[in-house]
UniProtKB/TrEMBL annotation, chain A:
The keyword Cell membrane applies. It comes from Nesterenkonia aurantiaca. Its main location: membrane. It is a multi-pass membrane protein. It is found in: Cell inner membrane; Cell membrane. Gene3D superfamilies: MetI-like (1.10.3720.10). This is Putative spermidine/putrescine transport system permease protein. It comes from the Bacteria. Keywords: Cell inner membrane, Cell membrane, Membrane, Transmembrane, Transmembrane helix, Transport. InterPro entries: MetI-like, MetI-like_sf.
UniProtKB/TrEMBL annotation, chain B:
The chain crosses the membrane at residues 21-47, 67-94, 115-136, 148-174, 195-219, 255-276. GO terms for cellular component: membrane. It comes from the Bacteria. It comes from Nesterenkonia aurantiaca. Its main location: membrane. It is a multi-pass membrane protein. SUPFAM superfamilies: MetI-like (SSF161098). The lineage of its organism: Bacteria, Bacillati, Actinomycetota, Actinomycetes, Micrococcales. This is Carbohydrate ABC transporter membrane protein 1 (CUT1 family). It is found in: Membrane. Residues 67-273 form the ABC transmembrane type-1 domain. Keywords: Membrane, Transmembrane, Transmembrane helix.
Automatic annotation (TrEMBL), chain C:
This is ABC-type quaternary amine transporter. Coiled coil: none annotated. One of its GO terms (molecular function) is ABC-type ferric iron transporter activity. The lineage of its organism: Bacteria, Bacillati, Actinomycetota, Actinomycetes, Micrococcales. It comes from Nesterenkonia aurantiaca. Keywords: ATP-binding, Cell membrane, Ion transport, Iron, Iron transport, Membrane, Nucleotide-binding, Transport. The keyword Nucleotide-binding applies.
Length: 288, 292, 348
């Protein structure tokens, strides 16, 4: 019996249970430690796979039982500046930027129209634009390969087309989400303040949707930047991107230093871009 | 009731805006699937004469085995990614500054390509990899790369995709949940109870969506199983790419049959997933409508 | 179900910004204290510190004299109701109210049984099976109140709980809170920016500005005897009349007004509330002036008067609240006088 019920005019409400006075003691040590342990475990999970990459990229000799490299060397990082790797970096950059421009533009247009179409039609179009998510990329590439080659589409363009299709669901989705919370009254206010239709699109809509454009563009850039299978299957070695170099280095034995250095070369540009976007987004944010 | 003509022309204009994207997607996917189907049946050969044949589909046992491996990888990876991803999200929502740090670091791994992550996991988990070295090369260190359980592959998928799951969950339930967990705390719920009784039920829908996306993605992913898996048996992606690149051009139909199998499995999984979400949504609606 | 709550020299800073400075405040058992202040005054931060959701940078929180500063929110036994109801969207109304009991290990049936009693208290017993989305804003807030009470908190903390409700509903909630105070006698800390709400609900009001308590006093006293012009303004007082104290009498354009006998001589601000002033005929009044503005607000009218000042006195404007509509227009001459005999001054 822990509850005492006291009658009150309109309803009956139980009294508060008597409390043990040693309330402080209930904050046990284990309770405090558990979140710390979980946090440390999660940090380890996130960071551990990156540790060997960082170490190997600056390792000289690193024989088996030693937990740390026996000697250090900047050779692997320097090799990133070789013409072959620089060339591959440029190809990757070109591919990433092309996919970003193509998929962001098409995705933005599609999202605007999804917003305006009557419901059923909008659903059908939206569904069609999501289908690339359901098709395993290698399957898409294999089928498209035959067609694009027989149509004599240049290799780079063929890779770009397939990757744009892959990236479109992401960009369309990003814009749809942004539009769902976009307040069209901003444009109406601008119109009543004397801005023309075209000016409104440029100075109000584009400015307010800039964060969405950046996010969508970033995702699409990643699709092109990190693609491996499409470039390998369609490109057939006509142009070599960073992932192709990394793939051949990682699949052969030895050469851990180069694998690690190429990995860093692939990780850093997007991370820098992301940090830049985050800073720019924080500064240019309009709503509080 | 008739549609006003202004509205009709507005939606025609809207359709026109969507046309480039829709046409591109429909054409490329349609053509890709059609070509794959035709090639798998012996038409459109790389060279030689077209000849109808179901030979590529004949080795059903091997196709089924590959599909089985793919499904195993996707199931195990998705399950692990959901558990870890949920923990990251829940920790981010309940642990204050430390939680925000974990969430930020986790989100920062999202731009890392799977190929890079596969290489990193290889360096970490290989026989004489970083982890074995740190642990002092113990006798019983298990084989994780190229083993029959595909451990390294599953860990690579889970590592990458748990960050995605956490992002989706945090985005899906976001700030309101932070307030709700605070409220739960003032009502006497411990950290564990807040996780199980507030965050988990609210995260069910985002977890379901993220799980489906991760499942379909891992089903069709090539890099990790290729770099970190054993030579045999092969998942669908590895099998298809090997046959496609084979010098023996007669294996092209088999490659296409494998690719189409993967499409069929993916579509089946998506159909099943949508069915389940719809049913659970209907159930929750029925629940809420009890006394209304 | 009540205890006393004490803040002992509580300070809090967010980075370099000091949001609370050396707050000392006592909330006696079963009383209701309103923390009144504008947004940004630090009142919600103080409430979060009381709930254990935020550790203070310095100072102590005591419940019944016992230091609970280090006790986490879930162990502290405070009930908190926010401006938004924050009902758990995945739980029915009754399960929301049963939440605390379930977390404490109670069985489902027993927790729900208790929850129903609290729902009855807030007159929502018929809504037990609904989901939160199927309630109106006022009903949701009642459920939130029932949920906090069902925890049987030692202290009930209310953070602007009624400010998103419209006026009529707010009156209903005041009634409800009065019922709850009669039946359960909880200790309540109410955060609000609405001085009327604070006056209706609380026994005492603590006025917060820029992270400091300017004054803590019973409702009537803080209205008529504000400790500073700032408190006077925050409580809606419109009048500050500069004058000089000589032998317990305040001399100003408002005339000679007796103040507390121990008031030291020298310059002082007289702060008569607009409700304490009255208009009189121009002839017999000790102070006369010209009407500059007449602002009707329903049953009352606010009349602003510029007082005629002697050569050695400051020009003074006062506001007078009169019942009904006075037969006056701008530019008319009128007399102004203090109802009652004694005035309240703050020496400068």
């Amino acid at each position: 019996m822990t509850t005492v019920t006291k009658p009150v005019p309109s309803s009956r409400v139980p009294e508060r249970r008597p409390q043990p006075s040693a309330r402080r003691a209930s904050v046990s040590g284990w309770r405090r430690i558990l979140p710390v342990v979980l946090g440390a475990a999660l940090l380890l999970w996130i960071l551990l796979p990156l540790a060997p990459v960082l170490l190997w990229s600056v390792a000289g000799q690193w024989r088996a039982p030693a937990p740390l490299p026996g000697s250090w060397s900047s050779q692997a990082l320097e090799s990133l500046l070789s013409p072959e790797i620089l060339q591959a970096g440029l190809w990757s950059l070109a591919l990433g930027m092309s996919v970003a421009v193509a998929a962001t533009t098409l995705g933005a247009l599609a999202a605007f129209s999804l917003h305006r179409l009557p419901r059923t039609l909008s659903r059908i179009v939206g569904f069609l634009l999501l289908t690339p998510l359901a098709i395993p990329p290698f399957a898409l590439v294999m089928g498209a390969n035959v067609l694009l080659l027989s149509a004599r589409v240049p290799t780079f363009a063929a890779v770009l087309i397939v990757l744009t299709v892959t990236a479109l669901p992401y960009t369309t989705y990003m814009f749809s989400v942004a539009l769902a919370s976009y307040d069209w009254r901003f444009e109406e206010v601008a119109r009543t303040l004397g801005a023309s239709r075209v000016r409104v699109i440029r100075t109000v809509r584009m400015a307010l949707l800039a964060p969405a454009i950046a996010r969508a563009g970033f995702l699409a850039f990643l699709v092109g930047w990190s693609d491996y299978i499409t470039t390998v299957l369609i490109g057939g070695g006509q142009f070599r991107t960073l992932p192709m170099l990394l793939g051949s280095s990682a699949s052969s034995t030895g050469g851990e230093q180069l694998t690690a250095a190429l990995s860093l070369a692939m990780i850093l540009p997007p991370v820098i871009l992301l940090a830049f976007l985050a800073r720019w987004g924080a500064r240019g944010r309009i709503s509080p | 009731m008739s549609v006003p003509s202004g509205q009709r022309s507005a939606s025609r204009r809207a359709l026109l805006t969507a046309a480039p994207a829709v046409l591109l997607v429909v054409l490329v996917i349609g053509a890709a699937l059609l070509t794959a189907l035709l090639q798998s049946l012996g038409f459109l050969p790389v060279f030689g004469e077209a000849r109808f044949s179901t030979e590529a589909w004949a080795d059903g046992a091997s196709l089924l085995e590959s599909a089985g491996v793919s499904l195993y990888l996707a199931t195990a990876s998705t399950a692990l990614a959901l558990v870890v991803g949920f923990l990251v999200a829940a920790y981010a929502l309940t642990a204050g500054r430390g939680g925000r740090l974990v969430a930020a670091l986790s989100a920062a791994t999202i731009p890392i390509p799977h190929l890079v992550a596969s290489g990193a996991i290889g360096l970490l988990l290989a026989d004489a990899g970083f982890l074995a070295r740190v642990l002092g090369m113990p006798e019983g260190f298990p084989q994780l790369v190229g083993d029959s359980w595909w451990a390294a592959v599953i860990l690579e998928f889970a590592w990458k995709e748990s960050a995605f799951v956490a992002l989706v969950v945090l985005g899906g339930i976001g700030r309101p949940v932070a307030e709700l967990t605070e409220t739960a705390a003032t009502l006497g719920a411990s950290a564990r109870q807040r996780m199980l009784h507030v965050i988990l039920p609210l995260a069910r829908v985002p977890l379901g969506v993220a799980g489906l996306v991760v499942f379909v993605y891992t089903l069709g992913s090539y890099e990790a199983p290729w770099l970190l898996g054993p030579v045999a048996p092969e998942p669908l992606s590895v099998r298809a790419v090997r046959l496609f690149g084979s010098v023996d051009l007669s294996s092209r139909p088999e490659a296409m049959a494998t690719a189409l199998t993967s499409v069929a499995v993916a579509l089946a999984v998506i159909g099943l997933g949508l069915l389940l979400t719809r049913r659970s949504r209907r159930r929750s609606r029925a629940q809420s409508g009890v006394s209304s | 179900m009540s205890s006393s709550l004490t803040f002992d020299a509580v300070s809090h800073r967010f980075g370099a910004e000091e949001v609370l400075r050396d707050i000392t405040l006592c909330v006696p058992e079963s009383s209701c204290v309103a923390l009144l202040g504008a947004s940004g005054s630090g009142k919600s931060t103080l409430l979060r510190i009381a709930a254990g959701l935020l550790p203070p940078s310095a100072g102590q929180v005591r419940i019944d004299g016992e230091d609970v500063t280090a006790v986490e929110a879930e162990k502290r036994e405070t009930g908190l109701v926010f401006q938004r109801p924050l009902l758990f969207p995945h739980l029915s109304v009754v399960d929301n109210v049963a939440f605390a009991s379930r977390m404490a290990g109670g069985s489902k049936a027993e927790s729900r049984r208790q929850a129903r009693e609290y729902l009855e208290l807030v007159q929502l017993a018929d809504y037990a099976q609904r989901m939160p989305g199927q309630l109106s804003g006022g009903q949701e807030q009642r459920v939130a109140l029932a949920r906090a009470l069902a925890r049987r908190p030692r202290i009930l903390l209310l953070d602007e709980p009624f400010s998103s409700l419209d006026l009529g509903l707010r009156e209903d909630m005041y009634e409800l809170l009065e019922t709850i105070r009669e039946q359960l006698r909880p200790t309540i800390v109410l955060v609000t920016h609405d001085r009327r709400e604070a006056s209706v609900l609380a026994d005492t009001i603590a006025v917060l500005e820029h992270g400091e308590i300017l004054q803590h006093a019973p409702v009537a006293q803080i209205h008529h005897q504000p400790a500073s012009p700032a408190v006077n303004r925050i409580l809606g007082g419109l009048n500050e009349v500069l004058g000089v104290i000589r032998a317990g009498v305040h001399h100003s354009a408002l005339g000679r007004i007796t103040v507390a006998p121990d008031t030291p001589d020298g310059p002082a601000l007289l702060m008569p509330r607009q409700e304490s002033l009255q208009l009189t005929g121009a002839g017999e009044a000790p102070a006369r002036g010209t009407v500059t503005q007449i602002r009707p607000s329903g049953a009352h009218t606010l009349v602003r008067v510029t007082l005629d000042a002697a050569a050695d006195q400051e020009r003074v404007d006062v506001a007078v609240e009169v019942t009904g509509t006075p037969r006056l227009s701008r530019g008319d001459t009128t007399g102004v006088g203090l109802r009652g005999t004694a005035g309240w001054v703050v020496p400068l």
